[in-house]
Structures are given as structure tokens and as C-alpha cells.
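pinned: reference chain
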Amino acid sequence: MSASPAKPVFTGMPFFVYPVADIERSRAFYGGLLGLTEIASWENQFVEFAVGDDALALSTTMRGATPGVKGGAASLETAQFDEAVALLKDAGVRFALEPVDTGVCMFARFEDPDGNHIVLHRKHPD
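pinned: its C-alpha cells
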């Protein structure tokens, strides 16, 4: 009997990626409205934005993936939760879930221009 191969050790999740229909419209939303810094781009089809030490990526080349299909959601942590909600609402961004206080955190779920859901989050201090 042979030994099972060793399981890999995963050390991080370098990015979360959403399918999008229009990369420039997405750049305007994520970089312009949300103020995220673009850190990588490939042939204007795949773009990454910095979120702390991690990244949120957008791609127009994800075969079989439809922009805006509801499912998983990336989460953005901010100490300026109320200000972020106000900014998004002032810009006419659609909220799929209005802000809620769970006792542990504040969160809300909003949509990008393609309808992808993003969670706005602020953990309460200990």
C-alpha cells in the first residue's frame, strides 16, 4: 500500500475575482467610486485592486461565468462604515441588504454595476 500524497499547505488567498461585462465601467466603480488602487492589469481583460494586503480582481474572460449572478460575495472591511454607506447611497448604488448591526459587526450588501454583490463590513471593537 502506498502512502497518500501530502496535502498542500495553503498560505493565503491572493484575490477574489468577479466576472464583469465592461472592464472600464468596473474600473470607474472600484477605482473611482470606491477609491481602490489598481495594482495589476492583463490585456485590459483582468484587473486587480488592492484591499489591504489582498486583492479584488475583475475579469471579462471568465468562461461560463455570468456577471451579476448571485452567489458568493467579496467583503470590504472599513472603519468608516457609515461614511461608505453614505457615499454609495449618494452615488445611487443599489443595496441588496441595508446596513444591519449584528452585535458583532455592521454589514450591508451592495451591488457593483454588473449586479455582483459586495459586503461592506466593520467589525465592532472587542
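why pinned: The CA atoms of residues 71 and 117 lie 8 Å apart. The two ends are 51 Å apart (CA to CA).
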